Amino acid sequence: MNTRKPLSVIYVIVAFCTIFALGGCSDSDPVAPGIEPEIINGVQSFEFQVSAVQNYTGTLSYTWNNAGSFAAVDHSSAVSGGSAMLTIMDATGAVVYSRSLSEDGSMATATGEAGDWVLTVTLSGTSGDLNFRAEEGT
């Protein structure tokens, strides 16, 4: 009596398991090889931190719902090489903030339309530690 399963059944099972295992992967996650940002996307604030970046080039974008008409932005980064820019657009797509993350301090965005704001971090050959927070303005 032959109890072996046909190879085609085994191939189907392996293919199914592979597809199932890869099903959780997503191209929409703005995490790129070489950096692992810590993101807190809260109701009244957005926080971004990534440590020990080494000569990284790439762009990361995040959507944050800002119920206010502006945001208070704090950044304290230690950029040791390359450049790191933060650009913030309001719900209409207007740029309300654009500064280098090498500039430490507290600043405010220009007044904009409340709703889904887009925060974009553009890195070019960047090395160092990056940290910023945007808080809803009232």
Characteristic terms for this protein:
mainly beta, 1 helix, 7-stranded antiparallel beta sheet, Jelly Rolls, 138 residues
Explained architecture:
- The chain is mostly beta strands and 138 residues long.
- The chain contains one helix and seven strands.
- The protein has one helix at 7-22; strands at residues 38-41, 45-66, 71-75, 78-89, 95-100, 105-108, 115-136.
- Strands 1, 2, 3, 4, 5, 6 and 7 form a seven-stranded antiparallel β-sheet that branches.
- Strand 4 (78-89) and strand 5 form a beta hairpin.
- The longest helix is centred in the N-terminal third of the chain and has 16 residues, at 7-22.
- It is elongated.
- The termini are far apart.
- Residues 9-31 have low confidence and may be disordered.
Fold blueprint:
Blueprint lengths: L6 H16 L15 E4 L3 E22 L4 E5 L2 E12 L5 E6 L4 E4 L6 E22 L2
Antiparallel strand pairs: 1-2, 2-7, 3-6, 3-7, 4-5, 4-7
Assembly state of the chains shown: single chain
What is the third-level CATH name, the topology?
Jelly Rolls
Helical element count?
A: 1
Helical percentage: 10-25%
Number of domains: 1
Distance between the termini: 78 Å
- At the first level of CATH, the class is Mainly Beta
Task: Report the uncertain regions.
Answer: 9-31
Total number of β-strand segments?
7
**Which value, in Å, is the CA radius of gyration?**
21 Å
Structural class call reads mainly beta
- What general outline do the C-alpha atoms trace? elongated
| CATH architecture heading | Sandwich
The major pleated sheet works out as:
7 strands, antiparallel
Mean pLDDT: 83
- Helix/strand order, N-terminal first: HEEEEEEE
